[in-house]
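call fold(seq) -> tokens
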Amino acid sequence: MDGEAKPPRTRVVLGEVAARRPPADPAKADLAEQTPVGEALVKGLVRAQLALALRLSLVVVAGLGALPLLFAVAPAVGKAKVLGVNLPWVLLGVLSFPFLVGVGWAYVRWAERNEQDFAAVINRPEA
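ret:
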């Protein structure tokens, strides 16, 4: 042990490492720390998603709810036959499903767009 040379001491200063770190994004910090600004951003996203859900719910209610009303107001339409099947059965039993799938597809697409807009606000570079 006496004959071996000791390696030179290395001084570690953590302040320099922290100084080289890029500054935290304020919007992400607001979200992570649940500040009033971050809370407002999340509330805006939730409000946009709720508004979208309510609008598309109205489309479904108007689209499917108007059919029984149509059959009550115009009984001749309710008695019409398509390929030997009553028109109400065709509309409510067959064509309503593609309509609901289309509304569901639109909801998912527009909800994802809302989330992408939210992410763009969070990830935008500060000016």
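The radius of gyration is 31 Å.
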